[in-house]
Protein: DUF2357 domain-containing protein
Organism: Agathobacter rectalis
Amino acid sequence: MIGAVCFKVTNEYEVRIYMVGTYEQIDWTNPSPCVLGENYTCYALKNEEAGNAIQIVTGLNGQHMLRLFETKRYILRLVYEENLDIEVPRFQNENNKFLKLEKDKDYITFQFVNYLGYSRINFTHDNCGQQIVFEIAPEKMNYEEDYIVLTEAIAQVCSELLLEYSGLTSNLFEQSEEEHRTILEQFIFLRQFCYGNNLFSVFEAIKRNPDRVLSSDEIYKPIGCGIPSQKFYTHPFSYGKGWQKTKRADGTFSIVPQMISVTQKQDSIDTPANRFVKYALEKFDSVCLELMNSLDAAGGVKQAECLSEAKAIHNMLDEIFNDGFFDKIGKLDIMPQNNQVLQKREGYSQIFSAYSMIDLALRLNWSGHDDVYEGESKNVALLYEYWLFFELYKIIDSIDGCKKVYLKDDDFLTVSDGGITILLQEGKKSRQSFVIERLHTKINLYYNRTFSRKEFKTTLYEGSYSRPFRPDYTIAIFPDSYVKGCNNGENGAIQNGEVSYIHFDAKYRVTDLTSLVGKRTDEYEEIEFAEDKTDAVMNTYKRGDLLKMHTYNDAIRRTIGSYILYPGKGDSEDTRGVSYKLYDEILPGVGAFAIRPSIDEAGENELRNFITELLESKGALYSRLNRMKQYTEMVLREPSVSLLNTADYQIGKKDENVQKGIRCVLGYIRALKEDDYYYSLVENNLLFTGAEFLFYFYAIKDSYVYSHHPDIFKTKRFCFYKNSIMDTKKYILEQTICEIESNELISKKELVERLNMQGYKTNERNHHADFYYILKVKVIGNMCDLKEIGVDEISLQNGNDAYSPHSPKIFYMEDLS
């Protein structure tokens, strides 16, 4: 097991690469030669169980390559003579968001996050340039298997979309004038198809069982040297030559040909399928040659690995073309699109699929694809995110009776001239709509839809009441009774409160469920908190991923569940297709699904079953989540203007239900120290008739959403107490009577700014919640004397909690004058 790799820049200057925390586990006393070259030396680990964070692998071109892993932290240690003036090495990706660097005098700590592909470290000393080229491989996916399968799975979906929208009779293989612009992207597909000896094995499969045809040729032979063909008997003068007049024995004459047509049958491999294979391999070779020419012309070493691999594939194709198999195969004259041999037979189907993927680069316009492939690098997390959208798309589309609905605005693809444009790009909203008539349900599948606070403030039924949130995927479910219109009728369902949202986030960094939810032991809690700090620094959140799902549920209106989609462990059977449910309901609120292409279909089936069950239950009864709906309406509903202006809230009007007098909000204003809020109100003369001030109370603290009485935001009167109810067991009401003019949800920072403008000198350290509700109140009079109400009396009223001063109370008084 390799613990460290040493590279000699000069005789007096060398560098060592090893993983953080493994220095003491490396046997530095026994260096060994390294297959990377004469300038390299390897050091082994003392204990093989210590890990395997450094590997040396054989690349596509047959050359050895140093491999490191993403998310792992490595140290580049500089060892040199003291009198040398060394320039700090530079990484190729120093300005890239994927690379985290910490540079010291003789130590550089580096870490790649969500990055795959090649990188290099450049060294300059005494006007000489040296470099270490290495490969970053995924820690959570097998590079040679899972990552390639992931890429091919996306290409397969895109190919199916092309067939679906273009039709089987159209020619998908027309040459594009833009071909030269996509040569590198074509090569990326080709490189994965040709990885290792795959190309040779595919060709050998074709040779073992080639497509054959029994051909019949008409040749001319002297009469009597062969059996005349059937065509000679039907058209003798056309299939006979050298006709001569011959005298018979009886003195009559006859005309007899000297040469006749004879049918000769032979086995031939000159078939449309074999012609296509020859054509496709020539196409592969042209891609390699064009890339080689363009990279040679560009010069430099930036694309050296691509150039080397292109040459390797070109050499493999040359060796295949030298085989006599293609000697008697003609030129392709028509594209055999529906040929069953190409689609099903071993060897042929792989080449047909590979060619389709390469042609896809010409026919498919997908700007988001560029964010995944950046030259030699690949953003594997974003690639996984795109693949999951296609998985959700396929899952919903496969539900019995489901039909796609095509709109225009925000659709994730458009069709033009036999090609498609996929509008799937990170940070931009995309959508596909569906309808399931048997369930009377419409569905909108969103990618990167934003739920903003602005939406929350303008409607009772959508948006986020705190910060804006953008889940990776959102499924909106609503009845099909809403006519087709904006968002396929979703806006109408929103206004009537008949839409439900389910959110999914792709978490490529999560490896298994225990890393997501933690081990359920008391001893583990402190370890979990410590690891959470480390994960925050390394950008590998685990606990935070789960908390974010809770935040979606609490902050985004009409949300009924939020779930994590993660790759899972590659070698663990117990995580394949497993869903974690926080509690046992038909629609659990928080969960996680392990899903990636190489988990066969287990993960996809688990997710399909869950979504199908969700839609079945939602379609049968659009009141499945009355608890969530009631909670949303009770806590977060904003009052309408018409409601606030009704006579029910005017002085002297009795409440028809309670019949106890005027409904009033009772709040707590702190008055324990001279710098507390109450004394600021007194000093600034804000407790006299006509004055206005702010009353604030907790909304969200540390991801906990405070629940309050459902009538707080529908009430027009306000009074307060400042005594300690824990001591007196009574609310001692102050004489001030106020009218509530407005209510709002704001952040702690904004609260401090408004209180300072009001004259209260405070800062964020004095306030402990993250978000606050504020009531803007105006003093309208005073009560004749103080009133006292027992704590138990108010606490027994429906909707009030027991004692918390952070939660205002609702009470009723017959006379507040």
